[in-house]
Amino acid sequence: MKKQAGFTLIELMVVLVILGIIMGLVVPNVIGRGDEARVTAAETDIQTIGQALEMYRLHNSHYPSTDQGLEALVSKPSGSPEPKNWRGPYLPKTPKDPWDNPYGYINDGGSPEVISYGADNSEGGEGLNQDISTATID
Q1: What are phi and psi for residue 57, nearest 5 degrees?
Q2: Which of 12, 25, 71, 91 is deepest in the core (most CB within 10 A)?
Q3: Is residue 13 very low, low, confident or very high in pLDDT (cuts 50, 70, 90)?
């Protein structure tokens, strides 16, 4: 007679209990990190956009206007102020935040502000809905 190889019911139960314990310890620590990753990605994107804006300013002696927006970093803008020495593209495409919304851009004559309006895509908010901008990460 051949002896059949396999697992006993007790061995399978021990493995399932061990897997259950591991899942109970690991899963709570992993869930919710996606939201934190989106916030971190938005902060990193805003810093990258800020660097592209600085390159634009170095080449053209001014930042794009609010009307020209971040699209000025992708293709040569028209309107005022005219970029006299545009050497772009400064970014490969018009950036969107981790929630797939366009970044806001405001240039009131001083340092420009790049903004993600968070998960709710509206001004203000708390937690995941909180605005992230050059002013909040500097």
Answers
A1: -65, -40
A2: 91
A3: confident
Query: Cα 55 to the chain's mean position, in Å?
Result: 21
pLDDT of 40-55, one tens digit each? 888 999 999 999 999 9
Q: Looking up tokens 């800020």, which residue turns up?
A: 50
Q: How far apart are CA 18 and CA 128, in angstroms?
A: 35
pLDDT tens readout for residues 101-121: 999 999 988 889 999 998 888
Q: Terminal CA-to-CA distance of the chain, rounded, Å?
A: 76
Walk across the sheet containing 104-106 and list its strands: 104-106, 113-116, 132-133
CB-based contact 97:42 (threshold 8 Å): yes
52 φ, ψ (degrees, to nearest 5): -65, -40
Looking only at Cα atoms, what is the longest distance across the chain? 92
Place of tokens 């259950």: 20
CA 12 vs CA 15, 46, 47, 76, 131: distances in Å: 5, 50, 51, 65, 50
Going by pLDDT thresholds of 50, 70 and 90, the confidence category of residue 2 is low
Of the candidates 40, 41, 53, 68, the residue with the CA atom closest to the CA atom of residue 113: 53
